[in-house]
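Hi R.,

As promised on Friday, here is the backbone we talked about, encoded as structure tokens. Could you run it through your design pipeline when you get a chance and send me back a sequence?
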């Protein structure tokens, strides 16, 4: 089962470790990389998705922290009759790929993704790679 890594973290419970996630930026004092991504949300699963994220499993949250992820947020927006989830987090570790692999290998996180994945509707670029979330390019950041 392929699960986008970066989203693994997800409080949102993404379903596959996506290497296409875009690194957004670094801060000068402490190395902080910012990541953003987007995916669709099945309208009939919106309440379930919200319910799941109102009570994210504690071990999923612990794994996210263990993998050096902080300031993780997921936003919901309706655009032209379609629902989208926007995810943002900051990474302070030194080996993003290794941390994402650790998350991907975690059995509790894998179960979380199995519960949340049916709620999501990947955009075509992610779906073509068997992933859930599409990385986004940062075009502005104010320090």
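Update: got your reply. Pasting your designed sequence below so it's all in one thread:
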């Amino acid at each position: 089962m392929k699960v986008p890594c970066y989203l693994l973290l997800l409080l949102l419970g993404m379903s596959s470790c996506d290497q296409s996630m875009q690194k957004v930026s670094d801060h000068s004092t402490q190395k902080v990389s910012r990541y953003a991504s987007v995916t669709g949300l099945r309208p009939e699963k919106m309440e379930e998705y919200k319910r799941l994220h109102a009570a994210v499993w504690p071990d999923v949250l612990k794994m996210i922290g263990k993998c050096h992820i902080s300031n993780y947020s997921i936003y919901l927006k309706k655009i032209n009759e379609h629902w989208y989830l926007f995810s943002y987090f900051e990474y302070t570790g030194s080996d993003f790929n290794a941390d994402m692999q650790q998350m991907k290998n975690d059995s509790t996180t894998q179960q979380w993704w199995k519960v949340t994945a049916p709620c999501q509707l990947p955009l075509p670029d992610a779906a073509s790679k068997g992933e859930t979330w599409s990385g986004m390019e940062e075009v502005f950041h104010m320090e």
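One thing I noticed while checking it: The chain has a mean pLDDT of 85.

Thanks again,
M.
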